[in-house]
Specification:
Layout: H1 3-27, H2 33-48, E1 50-54, E2 59-62, H3 63-73, H4 78-119
Transmembrane segments: 6-25, 86-105
Keywords: Membrane, Transmembrane, Transmembrane helix
Amino acid sequence: MIDNDYLLAWALYLSAGLGLMLVWMRLTRWMWRWLREILRLAAAVLLFTPTLVDPSRDLLAPAIAIGALDLGFKVGDSVWRALADLSMYGLVALVLYLIFAAARWPIERWLRERAAARADGGDARRVEPQA
């Protein structure tokens, strides 16, 4: 496979992966937000994780495809490398998501309290004198 074919194959795979992610986002939009975001993260990791196929030529392929083909046809030992890559990228993505969610949580709480205070007709801490 020449370099142009390799790059064309990756471009086609990435465009198909983006299409699948759009469909997955549409399918999961009715769910509870915390579950929806985790499922979308898992789908992105499964679709977009590359793994090394040929170490001598530095060729990469989608880890889920390599794992499925190696298990299905019982050839090679790349399934363990693909599983290791999937678990590593999955763990990194989960840790980054948890950091993002932990940073977002107090900000959203503050915004909800601020909106509730405005809905009450002013600052909740200010006490109106009773005459």
